[in-house]
Each structure stands twice: as C-alpha cells, then as structure tokens.
Design brief:
The protein is built from two helices and eleven strands, in the order ββββββαββββαβ. The chain has about 180 residues and is mainly beta. It is globular. The chain starts with about 25 loop residues before the first strand and ends with a strand.
Length: about 180
C-alpha cells in the first residue's frame, strides 16, 4: 500500500512553524510532521507534536519538550565546536569536558560512559546541579567527533524524568545523522 506522504521530499516552512535561524550552511523545513534542521554537516528531525524549536545562546539548534507528559520539562540542543586544527581525540575532549564540569562548585559530575550514537563513537556525560529554587537538574551531554568538529547533544531535565519523556528524548537523539 502506497503512502500519500512522500517521505523524501521536503516541504517549504509554513509561517506557523517556529522560526529557525538559518545561514548559507543550514536550513530548516517541515517533512511530514517533523521539524527538520540541516546544520553544519548534520541533520536532526524533531517530532513537531513533541518538540518546539527555541533559540538558546551557544546552541546551533535547540528544542523544548512539548510531549504528552506536561509535567516533564526538557531543554535540549546541539552545539558544534570547531577544533581549529587542534589534534584531539574524542576521549580527550570528553576528559576536558569532565574536568571543566568538576571545576564548577554547583555541579556534581556523576558518570561518563562510552556509547554509540547511530554507529558512531560517543561519550555520555551525566552531571547533577542545583538550579534556581534549589531544584536538582540532570545535565546530559553526548559528545561525538566528526570531520574536525565536536558535536555536543546537550539536554537538561529533572532526575525523575518520565519513561515516555526519556523515550521521546532518545528518539530525537536517534534522528541526528551526519551528512558529510
């Protein structure tokens, strides 16, 4: 049975879609019910029923969670860091990030784990910190290296994040693919 939606074509963004900053290297569009973001050497697709595109300083693209679990708050985004010709391994980048996190008084670094994201080597770093009103927040950072850049998928959420919200975050992360 043929689908009435052509999964490979990208439709123009509508005026009701949240604005995404674009430059010559990046573009955004709506593909079916997804917000598609084409960044510097990568693409990410967010389910528009679960995520809203927002502007966050220092992030290439960022989202806030809108999922069915209204009590769960997740802020997440992608940060692209250029190595500027510096020779560094993914492990060294993770270690430098861990040392930086440990140097911040209000941060309590919890764990580091070598993982795979879509078949690519990555590190998962988990840190706990106290936000305003003494609310505990988990900082979830996943570092990947590709073509001389470090890609950091960074999320912040409560320690008691629901299983459905966590699954929605993992689905968003799984949509991240390198294009070059």
């Amino acid at each position: 049975e043929e689908s009435s939606v052509d999964e490979t074509s990208k439709e123009e963004s509508s005026s009701s879609e949240p604005a995404i900053e674009t430059s010559s290297d990046v573009s955004s569009s709506v593909e079916s019910e997804y917000l598609v973001y084409n960044g510097e050497g990568y693409t990410i697709k967010a389910d528009s029923s679960k995520w809203k595109t927002v502007t966050t300083a220092g992030m290439d693209v960022s989202y806030n969670y809108l999922g069915s679990d209204a009590v769960t708050t997740i802020s997440t985004g992608v940060q692209v860091l250029s190595l500027g010709g510096e020779s560094i391994t993914l492990k060294q980048a993770a270690e430098q990030t861990i040392n930086s996190l440990k140097s911040i008084d209000s941060y309590n670094f919890k764990s580091s784990e070598q993982i795979k994201i879509n078949g690519n080597d990555a590190y998962l770093l988990l840190t706990e910190y106290k936000a305003t009103n003494n609310i505990t927040v988990i900082l979830d950072q996943r570092l990947q290296m590709h073509n001389g850049k470090i890609y950091v998928f960074q999320s912040a959420y409560a320690p008691d994040i629901s299983a459905s919200a966590k699954a929605d975050l993992e689905e968003l992360l799984a949509s991240f693919t390198f294009t070059d």
